[in-house]
Amino acid sequence: MSILVFAESSEGKFKKTALEVVSYGKELAQQMQTNLVVVTAFVEDTSELSQYGAEKIVIGKSSQLKTADASIWADFIVAAANQESADVVVIDASANGTYVAPLVAAKLEAGYASNVIALPTSTAPFTVKRKVFSNKAFGYDQILTEKKVIGLSKNSFGLKENPTDSTISEFSPTLQEGKVTLEIVEKSSGKVTIADADIVVSGGRGLKGPENWGMIEELADVLGAATACSKPVADLGWRPHSEHVGQT
After folding, report:
1. For the chain, give me the number of helices (H) and strands (E)?
2. What distance in Å separates the CA atoms of residue 35 and residue 88, rounded to the nearest whole number?
3. φ and ψ at residue 32, rounded to 5 degrees
């Protein structure tokens, strides 16, 4: 038995959400008196994972992983979970993680809880607290299956350093070719992304036009924040759709 955490990377570096999910996985492993295994791919320097508690690091080397196809990534995580005899798989709530986690749960025949915000209140039965109704309330879910998949809500648990001596191994499972061809396109802006931001400065059509967005960007720079916008602003082309926030 072990806890398996999937740590997502971008351009060879770990996202803040990846380190948060490792922090969560470490404390969950301590709570359940078992080991933490972190699986990732395309990263040479894994020292950050060790800093946040990864006891074992498994690095995927399969060429099929150079895709945005969620089904391929789900197969990869499932293969790692089976190899490590993982009873609990933890995945962050990034755009990719939210897509991949239910697929992993289906392939493992596991119960799945999304938007989890805390460690289990009980492990027998396994009970987790999660956000519900568009984050307007909280609920408690019991996962009664033998295997379990947790989707950790972003910025809900925080980063908690727990330096650990890690063992590192490579993992090259046989993966099927995807049914669709998807390419990952990275946009580099040098600014804080919404996914990693603790503070977000957002604007709407009240700014009258994209030429007035400078005040939003200046305030965000001062605060070390990300910029965001309403859906109508993104639809008008004033700002990229990646900055759209809200429940529109």
Report:
1. 6, 14
2. 11
3. -95, 5
d(C-alpha 149, C-alpha 4), whole Å? 9
d(CA 125, CA 223): 43
By CB atoms closer than 10 A (0-12, 13-18, 19+), residue 21 is buried
Burial 72-106 (b: 16+ CB within 10 A, else e): bbbbbbbbbbeebebbbbbbbbbebbbebbbbbbe
Query: For 112-153, how does the pLDDT look when each residue is reduced to its tens digit (9 = 90+)?
Result: 999 999 999 999 999 999 999 988 899 999 999 999 999 999
Other Cβ atoms less than 10 A from the Cβ of 61: the count is 11
- What's 76-117 look like in SS3? HHHHHHHHCCEEEEEEECCHHHHHHHHHHHHHHCCEEEEEEC
What is the average pLDDT score of the chain? Answer: 90
- Report how far residue 101's alpha carbon sits from residue 2's, in angstroms, rounded to the nearest whole number: 18
Instruction: State the fold for domain 185-247.
Output: Rossmann fold (3.40.50)
Per-residue pLDDT reduced to its tens digit, 71-110: 989 999 999 999 999 999 999 988 889 999 999 999 999 9
Local structure of 196: helix, strand or coil: coil
Q: Domain 2-171: which CATH class? A: alpha beta
pTM over 0.90: no
Digit-coded pLDDT (tens) for 55-67? 999 999 877 787 7
- Phi, psi at 45, each rounded to 5°: -100, 110
Q: Which residue has the tokens 């529109």?
A: 248
pLDDT, mean of residues 217-225: 92
Q: Residue 4: name the closest of 143, 148, 132 by CA.
A: 148
